[in-house]
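Quick one: structure tokens for this chain, please?
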Amino acid sequence: MKGGRLASPLDQVVLVLSLAAWSLALGASLGLIHLAGRFTLGLYPYYALAVGLGWVLGNLYVWRARRVGGMRTHKWLLVTYLVGPPGVLYLLRTLAVEQAQELAPLAPTWALGAYAVLFLVPVTLRPTRRR
């Protein structure tokens, strides 16, 4: 494993927060809980958060992937860091006022795209190892 554990406390925090955010967003989408209007965030700060989150978590993924070995572990890390955190973005949009959600229905999709692109920049540009 070369100096890293399979699931560090950082991985566990990212996973737990992501699962909580996805659970709340799904519950709100299914109408089980009403979250609309609880938190207002403009679109520019929302997209800025998506970009920043993607960049930071992409770099964290690269940092963690260097410390653990095995392709199977890398796949789980990729799922944890790429698929999990957009739940926070979906939750934030679910918390917006219903009128704002109706005016920009594709905002979560665009935020997911911004997150994914900025996540993949450090992943694809990571320096190669010299042996």
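The chain has one domain: 9-31+39-124.
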